[in-house]
Design goal:
The protein has 234 residues and is an alpha/beta fold. It has one domain: Class I glutamine amidotransferase (GATase) domain (Rossmann fold, 3-Layer(aba) Sandwich). It is built from 6 helices and 14 strands. The strands form 3 sheets. A 6-stranded mixed beta sheet has the order 2-1-3-4-14-13, with no helix packed on it. A 4-stranded mixed beta sheet has the order 6-5-7-10, with no helix packed on it. The chain has a 4-stranded antiparallel beta sheet with strand order 9-8-11-12, with helices on one face. The N and C termini lie far apart (42 Å). The model has no long low-confidence stretch (mean pLDDT 96).
């Protein structure tokens, strides 16, 4: 099994690299392919990658990553259509939208894979708890972002919101799920916070009998945190 981590030297904000550290514990035999910003992505030449992961990054790094991935736009579109498993966390989903708009109205052209766009407001960071539902399970986490996402995601959203916001403050639909592509603003890291979701992700990756690292501990912590989140949501 191979897991490709795109640009870990840039895409590692908000503790999202903890997702990969946890996957290493869950899948000790997996090969972790850490693709540096100067390298060709493994997904462009290798056919047997189980997960392509990218974490949260700075606004400046977004522009660098967009240019690095632009030559592989058609390949990414093809992989999404074929059901390749992706997990993009934080603002990394914006790289695959149509554009990112700055406060002055100027726009950074993104890859245009999804019909969404982001608007930045660097003087106002949004912070909130998140509680929602994905595929019959409770999903929880946190959001901390300078951007909001806009566009139609009613047919390809990731989670329904119970507490917090969706892709923007007016939306109750969080993230993007297209086939086996998942893009979400939830940070945390999401995999440690949500063991039931992690099991589903491992199944999507082809793991027949997923076994979580520290399974009892992470499930107990999840249940405690979930109880507190639901109390906050009353």
């Amino acid at each position: 099994m191979k897991i490709e981590i795109l640009y870990p030297e840039l895409c590692n904000l908000n503790g999202d690299i903890g997702n990969i550290q946890y996957l290493k514990r869950c899948l000790p035999e997996a090969e972790m392919l850490e693709t540096a910003i100067s390298e060709e992505p493994a997904f462009n030449t290798q056919e047997d990658i189980s997960l392509i992961y990218m974490g949260t990054l700075s606004e400046h790094s977004q522009e660098i990553v967009i240019q690095k991935l632009r030559p592989y736009k058609e390949k990414l579109e093809s992989l999404i259509q074929k059901g390749q498993v992706f997990l993009f966390t934080g603002n990394s989903i914006e790289v695959l939208g149509e554009y990112i708009e700055n406060e002055d109205g100027s726009k950074i052209e993104a890859l245009g894979i999804f019909k969404i766009h982001a608007k930045r407001n660097m003087l106002h960071r949004h912070n909130s708890f998140f509680l929602g539902e994905y595929d019959g399970i409770d999903l929880l986490g946190f959001k901390s972002q300078f951007t909001m996402l806009y566009g139609e995601n009613s047919q390809n959203y990731f989670a329904k919101v119970e507490m917090g916001i969706g892709i923007n403050k007016e939306s109750k639909l969080e993230g993007i799920k297209q086939n086996n592509f998942i893009g979400t603003y939830i940070i945390g890291p999401i995999l440690i916070l949500n063991p039931l979701f992690t099991i589903k992700l491992l199944q999507m990756m082809g793991v027949e009998e997923p076994k979580l690292a520290l399974e009892q501990e992470v499930i107990e912590a999840y249940n405690v945190r979930l109880h507190k989140f639901k109390l906050l949501n009353k």
